[in-house]
């Protein structure tokens, strides 16, 4: 599943450099996560790094983008060219 950033985001900037897929960007009011690039760090790390550093815990699973670990791994491979 892709992650999302809720409106509880305080724009602290700590999540942005942590995303290995460059899925996080500044939105109109808060940071946003591109579900086409988010792999929940599958292929890179054991846990989503944005969640690890978020001081307000505002990065839940996006219910509109339900994906299995296998699908996230396939997305990682497609984005990086690695297996």
From TrEMBL:
GO terms for cellular component: cytoplasm. InterPro entries: 4Fe4S_Fe-S-bd, 4Fe4S_Fe_S_CS, PSI_iron-sulfur_center, YfhL-like. Residues 1-29, 31-64 form the 4Fe-4S ferredoxin-type domain. GO terms for molecular function: 4 iron, 4 sulfur cluster binding; metal ion binding. Keywords: 4Fe-4S, Electron transport, Iron, Iron-sulfur, Metal-binding, Repeat, Transport. The keyword Zinc-finger does not apply. This is 4Fe-4S binding protein. The keyword DNA damage does not apply.
């Amino acid at each position: 599943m892709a992650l999302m950033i809720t409106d509880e985001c305080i724009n602290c900037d700590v999540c942005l450099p942590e995303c290995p897929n460059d899925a996080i960007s500044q939105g109109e009011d808060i940071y946003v996560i591109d579900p086409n690039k988010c792999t929940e760090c599958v292929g890179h790390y054991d846990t989503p790094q944005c969640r690890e550093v978020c001081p307000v815990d505002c990065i839940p699973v996006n219910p509109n983008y339900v994906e299995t670990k296998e699908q996230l791994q396939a997305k990682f491979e497609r984005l990086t060219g690695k297996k």
